[in-house]
Amino acid sequence: MQKLTTSNRVLDCSLASILRITIPLILTFLSNSLLYSIDRWMLAGYNLDAMNAVVLSGTLVCAFTLIPVGIAGVAEIYVGQYNGAQEYHKLAAPVWQMLYFSGYSILFFLPAAYFSEFLNLLPAYYFQEGVDYQRFLLYFGFLPSVIVSLSSFFIGQGRANIVTVVVLMGFLVNVVLDYLLIYGYKDSLPSMGVRGAAIATILAEIAQVGVLALVFFNKENRTFYKTFKNRQYDKSLFLGCIKIGIPLSASNLAVMFSWYLVQCLVSHVSKEMATIYGIGLTIYMLFAFVGEGLNKAMATLSANMIGQKDLPSIQKTFRMFIAFSFILGGLIAIPLLGYPEKILAFFDLLKNTEVGEQEIRMTFSLLTIGIILEALTFSLWGILVSGGDARYPTIVYQTCLWSCLVLPTALLYIIGQLNSVTIVYEMNIVCLFLSFFFLYRRYKSLVWFHKII
Question: Measured between alpha carbons, how far is 300 from 283 in angstroms, rounded to an integer?
């Protein structure tokens, strides 16, 4: 484990400090994207209908799990501001509050899992496999928020490399178990298909929780940060995290549910469109690590700088993040735009005459633009949330999402004009552009720049 020193607890606007937190977080979210994408990739080779079922039901599972995850993630903001203010003895307290909250979330996930067959809009041809995948993951839906709670202790103080290693380990565990449980192994292990993919993901999450807990409670952290001593319930801190987290949680839920509705509308048009959309969404989720990583990194750095009352450093850091967004977007464009046929071949779609290759290529172009815009928007979002201003970006993004994407897609479906997947991704770009515009205005107003601790 990284030795605790004064120098490695300080986060500022220097390139070394920014890269120290940004690179591990980007790698963390890359690994996390791979963790969820690997189920779909392997199921694509197992059965294309199974992959489409998992794409649909997996989105609904994410919508449910992101409710506690959005709230638990607020612990990172408190840890960051405590760290910036050099109140190191308080860092473990918000983590414990969100661990308690994660435990309470079991009361939500158990009935949600039990009634899974009534909580979806799956087409008949994806219903059974989709419900199986959904039910298994919902029974253990509290695990992602436990992971986020423990991770916030390390991310908030700039020690994201620990989280990166743990997530990479989880990814490797998931890859091995996915292969064994989806396809089976000789005569000793039967093929389990979709159920095997769900079980592999759950076991990978349990492994991550175990390792993070071991590091959180090691002797060095118990001594310096009082990670075990500060386990008492703190009503004020608990409710403070809930207050900030509810808008984030509501936004996460609404975003995932919005995309779930769009997926269902597309899937009810035809299997061909469902497949094209499924491939596009899988690729989008794979590269979502850019926006999510920059969001978390910006929030962590900004929270520490707010703790130090250093506005110029936040402004300088954001300018650097703009450059990062375009650089990472350019790197992603290389495989998406330069070698689309290899991606199509990976999903074995070139041999399927029913799938429109040209439309998928166009989808990849739109995905590239969307990934860059999302990175810029989410960087701003991280700054606003670091000062406790979570409601405004939530309202803006939801308004843009429903007015520019969900409702227009529903209208096209109703009048029978939803005949192309590319129109969906075009509307998403409009949504992201407008969101960035309004969040940038909020950022310039400085109403978010205040301490919450």
Answer: 27
Q: Which residue has the tokens 């759950």?
A: 202
Q: Give the distance from CA 40 to its chain's centroid.
A: 16
Mean of the per-residue pLDDT values for the chain? Answer: 83
Question: pLDDT (tens digit, 9 = 90+) per residue, 141-153?
Answer: 999 899 989 998 9
Q: Is the dihedral of CA 215, 219, 221, 222 positive or negative?
A: positive
Output the CA torsion sign for 140, 395, 160, 29: positive
CB-based contact 12:313 (threshold 8 Å): yes
φ and ψ at residue 185, rounded to 5 degrees: -135, 105
* Domain ranges, ordered by start, for the chain: 9-445
Rounded to the nearest 5°, which phi and psi values hold at 422? -60, -30
Angstrom distances, CA of residue 105 to CA of 109, 112, 144, 236, 238: 6, 11, 11, 19, 14
pLDDT for 1-36, tens place per residue? 445 444 445 566 677 777 777 777 777 666 666 666
CA distance 452 to 78: 8
Q: Measure the CA–CA gap between 270 and 279, rounded to whole angstroms.
A: 14
Per the listing, tokens 């949504």 go with: 431
Q: Which residues contact 167 (CB under 8 A, 6 or more apart)?
A: 27, 28, 31, 32, 35, 208
Three-state secondary structure call for residue 368: helix
Dihedral angle at the C-alpha atoms of 404, 406, 410, 411, nearest 10 degrees?
A: -20
3-class DSSP assignment, residue 343? helix
